[in-house]
Amino acid sequence: MTEETIFSKIVRREIPAEILYQDDLVTSFRDIRPKAPSHILIVTNIPIPTVNDITADHEAGLGRLFTVAAKIARQEGIAEKGYRLIVNCNHHGGQEVFHLHMHLLGGKPLGPLVT
Ligand code: 5GP
């Protein structure tokens, strides 16, 4: 049984978050500590801990992360100038919340990726 995180509580609307979008597969809300003018998280509704735990059964939800990222980027008015999508995995990847999510960052030039 996968352990639940704070993101499951946000998905079920048990704790507050600025939710921008929700459907049967994913939920999107603003990051509580934004690193860019637009910093939005898109999470699978079911708690997949990390990218390492992905199976073929998850493909619909994972595809939806991208569809929703593109939709929200347009809504935020950052699509044309561009943005960055990030999925962190485990400690070396900088993952803090072990419930698979995509970061959508934009609204300013983000510079090169750090190594
Ligand atoms: P990670 O490092 O796991 O890829 O990213 C986790 C992100 O979740 C961080 O950017 C952090 O600011 C955000 N975060 C952690 N707890 C909460 C919360 O309770 N609400 C919201 N909206 N964001 C959170």
TrEMBL record:
Domain HIT: 6-115
CDD domains, alphabetized: PKCI_related
Enzyme class: hydrolase
Active site: H101
Sequence motif Histidine triad motif, location on chain: 99-103
Keyword set, alphabetical order: Hydrolase
One protein family per Pfam: HIT
InterPro entries per the UniProt record, alphabetical: Histidine_triad_CS, Histidine_triad_HIT, HIT-like, HIT-like_sf
Protein EC: 3.-.-.-
Matches recorded under PROSITE patterns: HIT_1, HIT_2
Hydrolase found in the keyword field: yes
GO molecular function, one term: hydrolase activity
Entry-linked PANTHER family: HISTIDINE TRIAD HIT PROTEIN (PTHR23089)
Protein name (database record): HIT-like protein
Annotated organism of origin: Candidatus Doolittlea endobia
